[in-house]
Amino acid sequence: MRNKRMLIVFTVLMLLASFSVVARAQDEPHRLNDKEVKKLMAQLKKDAGRFRKSLDSSLDKSRLDGTSREDDINAILKNYEDATERLYDRFKDNKSVGADVEAVLDGAAELDRLMTRRIASEKAERDWAAVRDDLRRLADAYNVSWRWWSE
User: DSSP H helical segments within 28-97, as ranges?
Assistant: First the structure.
């Protein structure tokens, strides 16, 4: 009789332990595999290219055209694009790490501060919103904090 009780208690404890493992696994966020990250990076590249074009067009039609301020904005955009290109290259070589994503996010943070000043057209702002969404997903994929913007 005592062995039967011990067996029941042991079984109940095992069931509780297995339920807690399953519950914790469901709390874990979905991690992207390499194929999904590659697709995300391609989308980021496409959205960033669209943003670059709309920002250039917007600046060319603004009072900033031909000024040193426009040059500064283009330099910030170039730094972001360089960091992004390094990330793509390192990803292709299977060497990308969270620090590479952080470098991209640091460059994007500067762009984000510019975009909050309403320096560009509505189209450029919409295009930037798409880039920001891609960056959020990329940061999540690499488990990197992306708290630099307000949502």
Answer: 34-60, 68-92
Q: How far is 41 from 38, CA to CA, in rounded Å?
A: 5
Residues belonging to the chain? 151
pTM for this prediction: 0.75
Give pLDDT < 50 ranges for the chain.
21-28, 150-151
- Dist. CA 129–CA 83, nearest whole Å: 19
CA distances from 30 to 5, 25, 137, 142 (A): 40, 10, 11, 11
Place of tokens 């620090």: 99
- Measure the CA–CA gap between 123 and 115, rounded to whole angstroms: 12
Instruction: Give the burial string for 98-110 (b: 16+ CB within 10 Å, else e).
Output: eebbbbbbebbbb
